[in-house]
Amino acid sequence: MPETTTVNSQFLNDVITGLKAEPKHLQSKYFYDEKGDVLFQQIMNSPEYYLTGCEMDIFTSQADALAETVRSGGEPFDLIELGAGDATKSIHLLKELLYKGADFTYMPIDISAHVIQLLNDELPAKLPGLKLEGLNGEYFEMLKKAASISNRRKVVLFLGSNIGNMPVNDAQEFLNEMRRHLSPGDMALVGVDLKKNPRIIRAAYDDKQGVTKQFNLNLLERINREFNADFDIDKFEHYCSYDPETGSCKSYLISTSEQTMTINDEQIFFKKDEYIWMEISQKYTVNQIDQMAANARFNTSDHLFDSKHWFMDAVLVAE
Ligand code: AVI
């Protein structure tokens, strides 16, 4: 079976299972089709969405310290980035490492073949001398592949608060799994959005221009486009909540009337005000992350903060 067919049928299964569940939910990893990518870029450029700017602040103003930390003793290593995207943040670290004459290979991992192709095409010209080995596929499968290619020390980048798009228990399991793919002394740099004034967080996920709303609705449009479904987009409104106690920021689409939609011969009924849970963007304290890292058998050797202390890149060393 061609890969796209397998991927599509997995997507369709996940959508139908999620819409038939109680409460209804969809998986936010499906936000990112071509239009979703564009909308996410717009979110990152919106005045309310502070996360990207904060992590960029860390990668630009502390590039030197970061490069020294990552280099450790100076032995050759592999720098593996999970979900590399266009590498806009990591490029600052790569530049600094090259400047310092570090011996490393950059291995971006991404589920999108297009992303890996772009990095292969564009990065070597931007960073002469860079050794690059792009890996297209699922994170942990590709981590295994990276280990089969070389047995050098590994430094894994998992930036952008991507860990926040998992419920806390799944995030813990993710760290455990990452640790199982690493050896003592290997390192992980994990980007985490920190708990802060609840209004600042809520505004980031409910921007005035309505881009986040479009971003959420685009998943319903994507389902219509790809599966010939018939969601009536105008009958859903976007709602976002943040609970300062748990640190969970959640996005929902709420049905504004009683309605039925059809997908693949399945009829899905919505009551008025029934919601679809679309996404979690979990916020943490520093202590929580240290504890989760310890549970996964990592030592937190450093915390790098932006100037406002809104975001953190935690440096974890495998025990
Ligand atoms: C990719 N991820 C870390 C973003 C976040 O902040 O949860 C996705 C996002 N969703 C709405 N705005 C941004």
TrEMBL record:
Keyword entries, A-Z? Methyltransferase, Transferase
Task: Look up the EC number in the record and give it.
Answer: 2.1.1.44
The UniProt entry, under Pfam families, shows: Methyltransf_33
Q: What class of enzyme is it?
A: transferase
- So which domain of life are we looking at? Bacteria
Query: Can you give the residue ranges of the Histidine-specific methyltransferase SAM-dependent domain?
Result: 13-316
What GO biological process terms are annotated to this protein in UniProt?
A: methylation
InterPro entries with a match to the protein in the record: EgtD, EgtD_Methyltrsf_superfamily, MeTrfase_dom, MeTrfase_EgtD-like, SAM-dependent_MTases_sf
Molecular function in Gene Ontology: L-histidine N(alpha)-methyltransferase activity
UniProt-listed Gene3D superfamilies: Vaccinia Virus protein VP39 (3.40.50.150)
Question: What protein name does the entry list?
Answer: L-histidine N(Alpha)-methyltransferase
In its UniProt entry, the species of origin is given as: Mucilaginibacter limnophilus
- This protein's gene is called egtD
